[in-house]
Amino acid sequence: MRSTEVLIVGAGPTGLVLALWLNKLGVAVRIVDKTPTSGTTSRALAVQARTLELYRQLDLADAIVNAGHQVPAANLWVKGAQAAHIPLDATGGALTPYPFLEIFPQDQHEQLLIERLHAVGISVERQTELLDFNQDEHGIHARLRLPDGSESECQAHYLAGCDGARSTVRKALGIGFPGGTYQQVFYVADVEAQGPAINGELHVDIDEADFIAVFPLAGKGRARLIGTVRDERAEHPESLRFEDVSQVAMERMKVEVTQVNWFSTYRVHHRVAQQFRRRRAFLLGDAAHVHSPAGGQGMNTGIGDAINLAWKLASVLAEKASPELLDSYEIERMAFADKLVASTDQVFSFVTADGRLARLLRTRLAPVLLPRVAAIAAARGFMFRTVSQLSLNYRLMPLSFGDAGTVHGGDRLPWVVENGHDNFSGLQRLCWQVQVYGAASEALSAWCARHGLALDVFPWSPACEQAGLARNGMYLLRPDTYVALAQSSPDVAALERYFATRALHPWTVLTR
């Protein structure tokens, strides 16, 4: 019998990121997947700004930005004309170091993560299938089928189900997966093409013709097309070829396809598991939630699940926190999943709905309103923060407390850059830490030093005020860089209460 601390089932981006984060925090992991190889098709494309910010903790952000394609703007088309242009770089430039949509196909993404795991001595155990498992107060006892058909047993403290929408882990736990399936059939095609919509930006057609979105890929003239399959052709999508799908929307956008490199059809589901945790077993990524591709949120949400859970598992295993800390994973991530499914469902229904009223809204109302909305800086900022997941927060949840300025416990820390230096530089540390903007008291400095807690003090500036921070405000940051505690002035007693009431122990570098 092989033993490990965390057994990860599923080696997509969610499982791979969880393995990397846990390894960096000193946790022994084993990651298995029943497929013979990693993905070879570019399924998910978008890497959002918030994911890139968090990837700095693993030194992954620069590698992805350099290898992928930065999308500087989004465009909406109606009746063969561009109806709205939304510049992402100008909108997000004051909000994040990554003011763009990063296109980095999932197959390349997975390969990069696998290479990073290999570098630290961890390999994905391929053609290894979870058959069943049981758990008690001491841990998980799992039964695996190995590549040669034999069976093996594995003992672990915790089990992470990252095994997709048809999750074996979720089914074994008997957790429901309510939701539904959209009636539309979609196709996806990676192509080489030319035309005004093949300019490195995102283009979406929303008129009465078949819906189509054009995502740029790295390399001249390369793009991903996502469109609807309508009428009788949708009855047998498995037999469709690219030549069979409607060309109306492509012709209106003047997209001339010269070569098809990959083509597939699929249906879109929207579901959220009834629980994300049962005792020592957890659900992450598509095993916990699936939704429409609107906004490119799916893969990023699964990665967010992994990062949220990793530091909590590491803290409990290192006896730096009580096991009750793990309850916060389901509370925080399920709330976001529910909200995400609802919001993407609304967008998805708007751009794909049939009927006279739906067409009227898309072709008459949207072309008038969207350019006007896109011209308002505040509206552009709201859209960017929402899609990029910068606005994701854990307010009013067990690990979040207080406020200072416009920043609340549970918020993402606002990004501030001044004279070439930014307040995110210290966030590459995977640890609890404190930031103060203005002056820190001697008592606070002494308390942080005594407890081994990193303290960064930044000079007050107009940029701090503009970002919504409070002068002399104190912000306690979780290991995943979200604000845990916000106070308008440095308060040692508030720190003491925060850790004591939650049975947490601050740590700068988690050692085992």
TrEMBL record:
It comes from the Bacteria. Coiled coil: none annotated. InterPro entries: FAD-bd, FAD/NAD-bd_sf, RIFMO-like. Its cofactor is FAD. Keywords: FAD, Flavoprotein, Monooxygenase, Oxidoreductase. GO terms for molecular function: monooxygenase activity. Residues 4-342 form the FAD-binding domain. Pfam families: FAD_binding_3 (PF01494). This is FAD-dependent monooxygenase. It comes from Pseudomonas fontis.
